[in-house]
Amino acid sequence: MSREGFGFTRLWLAACLIGLVVGSVLVVTHHTAAGHFAWGVTTVIGGIPVMIDVIRSIAKREAGVDAIAILAIIGCLALHEYAAGAVIAVMLASGQALEDYADRRAHRELSDLLERAPRQVHRYENGGLETRGVDEVVLGDRLFVKSGEVVPVDGVLEGDVVLDESALSGESRPVERPRGDLVRSGALNAGQAFDVHATATAADSTYAGIVRLVEAAQSERAPAVRLADRYAFWFIPITLVVAIAAWVVSGDAVRALSVLVVATPCPLILAVPIAIVAGISRAAKRGIIVKGGGALETVAQSSILLFDKTGTLTSGVPRLADVESFSTFDPEEVLRLAASLDQVSPHVLASAIVRAARERGSGDLTFPEDVDERYGAGITGTVRGRRVVLGQASYVTDGGPLPPHARDVRRRTMLDGSSCVFVGVDGDMVGALVIDDPIRPDTPRVIRGLRRAGIKRVVMVTGDHPDVAESVGAALGVDRILSERDPAEKVESVEAERADGVVMMVGDGLNDAPALAAADVGVAMGARGATASSEAADVVLTVDRLDRLVDAMAIAQRSRTIAIQSVLLGMGLAFFLMGLGAFGLFTPAVGALFQEAIDVASILNALRALGSGSRATGGGPATDVAERFRREHVEFAPEVQRIRTVADRLDTYEPAELRAELEAVRTFLCDRLPQHEEEEEAAVYPVVAKLMGGEDPMSSMQRAHVEIQHLIRVYRQLVDDLPRGGADRDDLVDLRRVLYGLHAILRLHFAQEEEAYAWLSAEEPVSVG
């Protein structure tokens, strides 16, 4: 049955119920002929909409299971089983009403996303505020967002704000955004009113893209619906064979009618689509836009996973890892000058440098003058009367030789797979900024979760150099690493993997779009834009969290499981009752009541797909504590990198300088770090251990704390034993060994803790079943 307007469905159901009740009253009051007439009219009313659907199906050359309902209605009229016909009419109308209700429930999250799309803005014009249509916003407009309003377009904040980003990310807890941060349209202002400068039009903003994705998702037809149509090809003949056999063997046509009545397969054509759409809606609530039931079913069946590296397995957001100084310039002064100049640069690394300077409190940044930028080479400008140059080594030195320290830094960053921006001041190279793209903390956990969900093979495909790709792939434990692949070669990789199973490709950039389109199911990390990849993909993660991919698979598998359960439930009960009806164990009217019960049971089962399938965990105070320690890890990053830098330069320091550097490292190791670890072990470890389960899952990290403390004690003793006149060669060898050990174990340990913190981030994990 095709879905009609809800108003028509209510009228249809009301007419059928009135006819059934009126006929029953007339028969009870001994007006039998009039009662049968009322039931007969009700039967006709119930059959007309279904007959229209059958005619439409025949016109489209589609076999529909509604044909059985028509045969049952015709049989009731021909055999004068008017009571059964009236009950069938009520069954068909109530089934349609149930479908409409369940469909609205299933579409609720998708519909909410569409309905909350902002339509008006408050724009500053001529010294005042004017209300305009959202489509009138142009780049650079200054807008006013009231408390409780949805941010209309993407923009840059003019002040600190509190936002509810649940419609974008699925996270229900408000988030704080500082002045100068980029805010995405669709976020709800959960605090005081604020101003924002538009960086995109309404059509190009984040929420408009989500709305387009939702509209595409709603327009797709679920494959399980097509399965219902294919089911009719063999279900109808079986039903007719059973009905005819019952008639021929018994000589009673009423038995054949009983078979037709209970065979009306409403559970399949109602419940299965509801389960699929409910899964799509459930995914939308988690920040996962699935473009139709076909994509959802393919996600559930995926067995081979291809990942892009940058922006997918890694954060995609460059981060300042270290500041190197080659002269008398203080590292903070090097960073301050570089960040001041980079304020006006659109380069992807510029934002990382400016952000790091603000986070480290490197003083007020000065707006640069006389700026000249050469794309791909560097940028030059005047900051506080100094001529500052940023960029590649050849650009900063103007083709001259590199200082020895600069060569060491460049060689190290090449081996690490990070980037290096050199800094020149007044004609001299004074330092370098080391920038990396760290692996997402939750990536190892996500890959393990995907393997548990049924992924048998994980392949990393990237355009990066083999050395960089190998280091990242080895750290994550992927099965195969494909490096230096351009967009065309990524497509070839997808095609090659398809021979072994259903392929899912995950990427985020423009160069990933062809591979996303070529895969059986493409998944785009669409939180930061990437319009081309989002349009090419079948699934879009609107929140920048890779663990949503595990949620997507769990939701897809759960929805598909429930859809199949609905099929088996409806078919099994129908076949069982067909057998009973063939032996004359109930009348057609009673059979119609049985069929109504099957409808209700199947639809209620399908609506289970709206649930998560597991108990909600995470969130609350424990998450706040984890966020605090995660921020401390960010604050500690320069100190950890300093340990490595001091180890590298031990034999280049003057005695007084060496003592000062070693003391600075000791202050961090002996004062700040132990307090952090003690509080972390007391506040976070027990909560994470409870969520992870198993026997003492945090024991390895607690053992790491013991090893770190051991190395700190050794380091402290070595520093205390240094001669006042300077260190000899053996002293430097021992110090370097301990410092390298501390640097390595701290980086590994912080990465392990970041992964463990991810267990506190999922508010509502989903599971299959």
Please render the helix and strand layout as text.
Elements: H1 6-28, H2 32-59, H3 66-78, H4 82-106, H5 108-115, E1 120-125, E2 128-133, E3 142-145, E4 155-157, E5 161-164, H6 166-169, E6 175-177, E7 182-183, E8 188-189, E9 194-198, H7 206-219, H8 223-250, H9 253-263, H10 266-285, E10 288-290, H11 293-301, E11 304-307, H12 309-313, E12 319-325, H13 331-342, H14 348-359, E13 369-374, E14 378-383, E15 386-391, H15 393-397, H16 404-416, E16 419-425, E17 428-436, H17 443-452, E18 457-461, H18 466-476, E19 480-482, H19 487-498, E20 503-507, H20 513-518, E21 521-525, H21 531-536, E22 539-541, H22 548-582, H23 588-606, H24 621-649, H25 655-683, H26 685-692, H27 699-720, H28 729-757
Parallel strand pairs: 11-18, 11-20, 18-19, 20-21, 21-22
Antiparallel strand pairs: 1-2, 1-3, 3-9, 4-7, 4-9, 5-6, 5-8, 10-22, 12-17, 13-14, 14-15, 15-16, 16-17
Helix pairs in contact: 1-2, 1-4, 2-3, 2-4, 3-4, 3-9, 4-10, 4-23, 5-7, 8-9, 8-10, 8-22, 9-22, 9-23, 10-22, 10-23, 11-22, 13-14, 22-23, 24-25, 24-28, 25-27, 27-28
